[in-house]
Amino acid sequence: MDIKLYDAELKVMGVLWNEGVCPARHVAEVLKDEFGWNINTTYTLIKRCIKKGAIERSEPNFMCQALIPKEEVQKAETDELINKIYDGSADKLFAALLGRKKLSVEQIEKLKQIVEDLE
Known about the structure:
With 119 residues, this protein is mainly alpha-helical. It is 67% helix and 8% strand. It contains six helices and three strands. The protein has a three-stranded antiparallel sheet with strand order 1-3-2. α1 crosses α3 and α2 packs across α3. The protein is elongated and about 50 Å long. The two termini are 26 Å apart. The model has no long low-confidence stretch (mean pLDDT 91).
């Protein structure tokens, strides 16, 4: 993915991924409720995402639609994290994640299945 989205832009995208196609005003209302943002802040971020090619705007009602899937952004952000913080080593990231929290038996089994599926 060639589009770099920053934290605030990802919050705008999150509304669209959760809600689907919706008017910009609705996006602004959700973000006002969640983060206290004013409408102008949200509209500025929507316009930035439009310029980047992440959101498409249509009329009537300034309807917004995410053009890139959440999974694509998650993959790009994960790759960036692995490269930036863990020297490109996914196993170092995995070890760091596992060392942070006590996992349930079900979570451990799920992780074992994921590893087996990769082999």
